[in-house]
Specification:
about 230 residues; four-stranded mixed beta sheet; binds glutathione; globular; alpha+beta
């Protein structure tokens, strides 16, 4: 069976946003998999991958690290299963979208939820998370909490184009969900699993899309431990 190495927080919360891209991609392809929890600060558990980040996917003798490379691997290896990209053009556009989400949406969300994540990581990861995160944020976690209202406004600005897009189409990929949806959804699932803040109002087109995503694969992403 395929094995997915991913982060585990308190109460068995699976909070790696990049792993959520892979989780959804595996379900999209109809592939069974087991998940192997690792701690953020325990790099020995994933040493075999040659890197220091999750997700790592192991499929028999093949080891792939990095969510984008995993998506490409699954698409190439499981050609007969439903497509994640829909051809070369879809793959190119999805990769560009992946980069934009990582550079624009992920940092904007992080500024909103960093302090909440810290409260829910594995206790043995708390110090490591605080040290690395405060370098990324260039402020303490306490300061980030105090500046949260501004961060929520900035996140709203970043997400505006997506709200417009969902007024015109039901999924990022069009009529049916595909990898582009899982890229954006992973950011909201990260927040859902690790932060009690409600970031989307019920009338927000993004909220309606997120509900559709949570319904996919028999409520796969809905039925996990959350904040
Ligand atoms: N580009 C990578 C990013 C992976 C990544 O940054 N993963 C985080 C967890 S969500 C991680 O493993 N960080 C390790 C660390 O901070 O030491 C991907 O898409 O897989």
């Amino acid at each position: 069976m395929i094995a997915l190495y991913e982060l585990k927080g308190k109460g068995d919360r699976r909070y790696s946003l990049f792993s959520w891209r892979t989780r959804m991609a595996l379900r999209h392809k109809g592939l069974d998999f087991e998940t192997l929890p690792v701690r953020l600060s325990d790099k020995t558990a994933i040493e075999f991958s040659g890197g220091k980040t999750v997700p790592v996917l192991k499929d028999k003798d093949t080891v792939v690290r990095d969510s984008w490379k995993i998506a490409e691997y699954l698409e190439n290896r499981y050609k007969d299963a439903p497509p994640l990209f829909g051809g070369d053009i879809g793959r190119g556009v999805s990769q560009a979208f992946n980069t934009w989400v990582d550079r624009a949406v992920v940092p904007a969300m992080l500024q909103v939820i960093a302090a909440d994540i810290h409260e829910r990581v594995d206790p043995q990861d708390e110090e490591y998370f605080k040290l690395t995160m405060e370098k990324v944020l260039r402020m303490t976690l306490e300061e980030s909490r105090a500046r949260r209202d501004d961060a929520v406004l900035r996140l709203g600005k970043v997400l505006e184009p997506m709200q417009e897009a969902f007024k015109r189409q039901v999924f990022m990929a069009g009529a049916k969900p595909a990898y582009a949806d899982y890229i954006l959804f992973s950011v909201f699932q990260w927040a859902r699993v690790m932060s009690p803040q409600e970031l989307l109002g019920p009338e927000d087109p993004l909220c309606r899309w997120r509900e559709r995503m949570l319904d996919l694969f028999d409520g796969f992403a809905r039925s996990v431990p959350t904040a």
